[in-house]
Amino acid sequence: MPVFPSSSLVISTYNWPQALELCLLSVLQQKILPQEIVIADDGSKVETKNLVDNFRSKFSIPIKHVWHKDDGFKKTIILNEAVRNSVGEYIIQIDGDIIIHPLFIKEHLISAKKKSFIRGSRTLINATTTQHLLNNKKFNINFYSKGLLNRLNAFHSPILSTLMMLGSKSNSPKDVIGCNTSFWKNDFIQINGYNNEILGWGREDGELAARFINNNIQKKKLKFSAICFHLYHNTYSRDRDKINIGILNSMIENKVAYCKNGYSNNNPATIWQ
Fold first, then answer.
1. According to the model, what pLDDT value does residue 237 have?
2. N vs C: which end of the chain shows fewer Cβ within 10 Å?
C-alpha cells in the first residue's frame, strides 16, 4: 500500500444545501477518506448548518464548518479561512455542487507529487438530470448516465490518465477549475493563498494557479481519473469579471508569485464544530 500524505477535503458552498447533500453523500462512498472535511461556507443560511450537523454522525472523520456572514461573493476569503483551519498536508478542493467518483480522493493522493498541483476536470450535468438527482437524492452517476454534456470527461481509465499526464506539456493557469483541484498546503501558504482582491464570480482559481506556476510549482493535468460531475445551476453575476481578468493577466505578465492580500490576512469567520 502506498503511503499517502495527510489530507483535508475543502468543499466550498453557498445556500444550496440540496446540492451539498449529494456532494457529501458521494464523499461517504470514497474508497479512501481524507483526514477531515472542511466546509468553506460563503454565508449560507441555517439550513446548510443543519445539514452539515446531520452529516457529522454519518462520517468517521471530523467535519469542520467554516462560515462568515453573507456580504456578497467572497469565495476567496472563505477558502483562505477554510485552509487556515485545515490539518492536512495536502488540500483537495471541490465545490458543494459536485458529485465525486468513489476513487476521487484516492486518485488525487496517488497523483500528488512535491512541487506540483493538480488541475482536474469535470463533467457537466444538464438541468433535467440535475433536477432528477436532487429530487430523488441520487448521487450514483457515471459515464453511461443520461444528461451528461461533455461525457468524455466521465470516462474512467487509470492507464489513459497516466498517459495523459505524461504527455501534457501545458503550464497555462487559465484552465484550472476550483471544483476539482489539489495542492500542498505549504505551497499554498508560500504564495499567500487565494487573492482576496478577487471578488465576485470567476478567475480566482486561475489566478492562484498563475502564482503557483510563477513559484515553480508545476501544473499536472488529471484526466480520466479523479472524475467529478457538476450539477447544473444558473450562471452567477459576472459584473466583476473584467476586473478579475485584469488581476489574473497582471499576475501572468509580471510573473507575480505572491499576493499582498491573501491567506496571511486574517478575516473573521465562525467555526462550527
1. 66
2. N
